[in-house]
Amino acid sequence: MPKASEIKRNAAIEINGEAYIVRDIERSVPQGRAGGSLYRMRMYNVATNAKIDETFKDSDMLTLADLSRRAATFSYTDGDEYVFMDSEDYTSYSMNKETIEDELPFITEDLQGMHVMVLNDVPVALDLPGIVELEIIETDPSIKGGSATARTKPAKLSTGLVVQVPEHISTGDRIKVNVEERKFTGRA
Question: What is the pTM of this model?
Answer without folding.
Answer: 0.74
